[in-house]
Specification:
Blueprint lengths: L1 H20 L5 H26 L5 H108 L1 H7 L8 H19 L1 H7 L2 H4 L4 E10 L2 E12 L3 H16 L4 E3 L9 E10 L7 E13 L4 E11 L7 E12 L10 E11 L9 H42 L1
Antiparallel strand pairs: 1-2, 2-8, 3-4, 4-5, 5-6, 6-7, 7-8
Length: about 425
């Protein structure tokens, strides 16, 4: 607007200068020229006024601001409407996704509910099959062991029958080492008479080796060398937790000892007092050496059982004698085996405890065996022979116990 006004003023100035430069020819011409100039000025002013337009009033300005505010509000409403529409669409999308996730979760839960049931069924079937296979294997082992025991019993009965029929013939065939002479009988009688005193020292022996405090788990100690003054001796400890009942274990233990000592090659002395609870036997046990020929040891053993209210005690005395190159060397053995119920409730699966304590006292009669190496070698033979015999008795006892368990399980199921 200002530029147009400047242009008009410049135009009027040019017109005025042009008129001033003209030379009036006469007064009439001057008046006419003045009139034309005024008319031109009026037209120019009218033209300028038309170009500038009317001035804006306060109402117009207010109305213009209101229109602008209305435009801004309309744009804001359109923006809010667009955002609301976008949120509605997002809500719909998220709702569809949520429904899909919930449906998938429900299907997963249904499968998770069904899967454990099938797994439980399969687990029960697998467990039942495993139990059946275990029972089948156990029964097979029981049958095999029963067959072995039956063969041993049949052999023992045949020997006894043959002994009753041809005692004199067998006596002639027996070697001098297997016959019981007067010295053997005297030794058996002496040991048998001393067993009551050994039994009386049971609690004292258990306290000496602290078995009562340690009998909470199966373990084995020894043989350990100990010294009492000038006497050096050996001790061994063996504690076993058995998974069978107290009475069943006691019966199997004694029956196993009777069966093992009735085998061929072991000669029993039947003149002992209380033969149902006492065993007196003479036997030879071969002992292997690393690079030399095996050597035998001769053993005289007397053992007796004592049955109490809540425990069974087996005590023994044994004399182990060296043969051939070890002739003149002896070991005197004292032993206790206590079978009692396990009172520790944390070991309910092992209701019976077997505690065995043995002491070996050297009795070398020949001065040439002061050699430490040779004495130690013979001591190893003595301990090894006792462990082998004990292992055979333990194997036989486990066989009898497993057989009884298998028979009882089968009887209950039938």
């Amino acid at each position: 607007m200002t530029d147009e006004r400047s242009v008009d003023e410049a135009f009027l100035a040019d017109v005025t200068g042009f008129l001033d430069e003209l030379e009036p020819s006469a007064a009439g011409d001057a008046a006419e020229l003045l009139q034309h100039s005024q008319r031109l000025l009026a037209e120019t002013a009218a033209l300028l006024a038309a170009c500038e337009g009317p001035s804006e009033t306060d109402d117009e300005r207010r109305e213009r601001r209101n229109r602008q505010a209305a435009k801004r509000r309309r744009r804001h409403r359109d923006k809010l409407k667009a955002e609301r529409q976008a949120l509605h669409e997002q809500e719909k999308t998220l709702s569809d996704r949520l429904r899909a996730l919930q449906q998938a979760k429900e299907e997963t839960q249904e499968r998770s509910v069904l899967d454990p049931e099938w797994e439980a069924v399969a687990s029960r079937q697998r467990q039942g099959r495993w139990v059946a296979e275990q029972q089948q294997r156990r029964l097979r082992r029981a049958v095999a062991r029963r067959h072995e025991v039956a063969l041993e019993m049949a052999q023992m009965l045949r020997r006894q029958l043959c002994g009753l029929r041809s005692l004199q013939v067998e006596a002639k065939d027996e070697s001098k080492d297997e016959r019981l002479d007067a010295d053997d009988v005297a030794l058996f009688e002496d040991y048998a008479q001393g067993l009551d005193a050994v039994y009386a020292r049971t609690d004292e022996a258990l306290q000496e080796c602290a078995l009562e405090d340690k009998s909470r788990a199966s373990y084995k100690v020894g043989p350990v060398r100990r010294r009492d003054g000038d006497v050096e001796y050996l001790e061994s400890i063996d504690v076993l937790l058995a998974p069978h009942g107290f009475k069943q274990t006691c019966s199997a233990m004694w029956q196993a000892m009777v069966l093992v000592h009735q085998r061929q090659g072991r000669q029993q002395y039947r003149g002992v007092v209380d033969p149902d609870n006492t065993i007196a036997v003479k036997l030879r046990i071969p002992c292997l050496r690393d690079s030399e020929a095996p050597v035998d040891v001769l053993v005289h053993l007397v053992t007796r059982r004592y049955v109490e209210a809540e425990r069974m005690i087996i005590v023994w005395r044994a004399m182990t004698e060296g043969v051939d190159e070890f002739s003149g060397m002896h070991f005197d053995e004292y032993g206790w085996c206590v079978i009692r119920p396990n009172k520790d409730r944390s070991h309910a699966a092992m209701p019976t405890i077997m505690e065995t304590f043995a002491r070996f006292l050297p009795m070398s009669l020949a001065p040439q065996f002061e050699d430490k190496a040779r004495s130690d070698q013979f001591a190893r033979f003595v301990v090894t022979s006792g462990e082998d015999d004990g292992a055979e008795i333990s194997r036989m006892m486990k066989t009898l116990l497993l057989d009884d368990s298998a028979i009882h399980d089968t009887t209950r199921k039938v």
